[in-house]
Amino acid sequence: MTASCAQVVPLKDVPSVRTAAQLPIHLADGREAASTIYSFHGLSDGKEHVALRFGNADAEAPLVRLHSECMSGDVFGSARCDCGPQLQESLRRLHEEGGYLLYMRQEGRGIGLYGKLDAYRLQEQGHDTFEANRALGHGDDERDYTAAADMLKALGITRITLVTNNPEKRRQLQALGIEVAAVQPTGLFSGKHNLRYLQAKVRHTHHTLALPETGAEA
Ligand SMILES: Nc1nc2c(ncn2[C@@H]2O[C@H](COP(=O)(O)OP(=O)(O)OP(=O)(O)O)[C@@H](O)[C@H]2O)c(=O)[nH]1
Ligand SMILES: [Zn+2]
């Protein structure tokens, strides 16, 4: 074999950006936001996670929101959870302040859409969101943020300001080599249909949510 036809074989599949494309977005308040959407090569779980970059995201610790997919909330506006309004709030904030949305294909805290719907059925029979997962043979929360850390590194980001109420996201990202310089909470989006769900998150997974006092326990 001559040198000219020798193949270069990468030592390992290092996560990297595959494509960046412009993505103008209609915000809920009628404004338009310019964003760039990124796909990736070599993410550890093989899922099609995407990142959206807004405005001047070159801050030393840019704003980053990790949003776990929730078809019922994100697409249909379900009132059973707070995902829809959280996503809208993230898009608005990122448009105004710059930063990144990581949209993680972790539907149902990692158990998938059909699994989540099975869990909803059990919740209608009295289980809370975590008991329902366990009754179906799942963990409370099966999300692993390795792919999120790899996406950030592929984008050249290792220090962030994380927007979340979930202490596990910070813990995992730090363990995966992303320095979380600060944590900022999301807004509180509670209503009659999601109050029990939010109460269960505070009780089981220590989400930092200042819920209204109702005396009702989930
Ligand atoms: N298994 C299960 N998943 C749910 C349920 N309700 C919402 N989810 C999923 O939970 C994920 C969102 O998680 P949350 O606990 O609301 O929020 P978080 O991402 O942990 O924390 P924040 O960063 O503070 O928003 C999405 O993937 C939803 O599809 C449910 O009742 N059961
Ligand atoms: Zn949801």
TrEMBL record:
Lineage of source species? Bacteria, Pseudomonadati, Pseudomonadota, Gammaproteobacteria, Lysobacterales
Pathway involvement? Cofactor biosynthesis; riboflavin biosynthesis; 5-amino-6-(D-ribitylamino)uracil from GTP: step 1/4
What the protein does comes down to: Catalyzes the conversion of GTP to 2,5-diamino-6-ribosylamino-4(3H)-pyrimidinone 5'-phosphate (DARP), formate and pyrophosphate.
Does the keyword Nucleotide-binding belong to this entry? yes
Give me the comment on cofactor binding: Binds 1 zinc ion per subunit.
Keyword list, A-Z: GTP-binding, Hydrolase, Metal-binding, Nucleotide-binding, Riboflavin biosynthesis, Zinc
Can you tell me which residues bind Zn(2+)?
Answer: 70, 81, 83
The protein depicted here goes by the name: GTP cyclohydrolase-2
Q: What class of enzyme is it?
A: hydrolase
Name the domain of life this protein comes from.
Bacteria
- Gene3D superfamilies, per this entry? GTP cyclohydrolase II (3.40.50.10990)
Reaction catalysed by this enzyme: GTP + 4 H2O = 2,5-diamino-6-hydroxy-4-(5-phosphoribosylamino)-pyrimidine + formate + 2 phosphate + 3 H(+)
According to the UniProt entry, what is the EC number of this protein? Answer: 3.5.4.25
PANTHER family the record matches: 3,4-DIHYDROXY-2-BUTANONE 4-PHOSPHATE SYNTHASE, GTP CYCLOHYDROLASE II-RELATED
Give the source species: Dyella mobilis
Binding annotation for GTP: 65-69, 86, 107-109, 129, 164, 169
Task: Name the cofactor(s).
Answer: Zn(2+)
Q: Spell out the catalytic residues.
A: 141, 143
Give the protein family. Belongs to the GTP cyclohydrolase II family.
Q: Where is the GTP cyclohydrolase II domain?
A: 35-182
Q: Which gene encodes it?
A: ribA
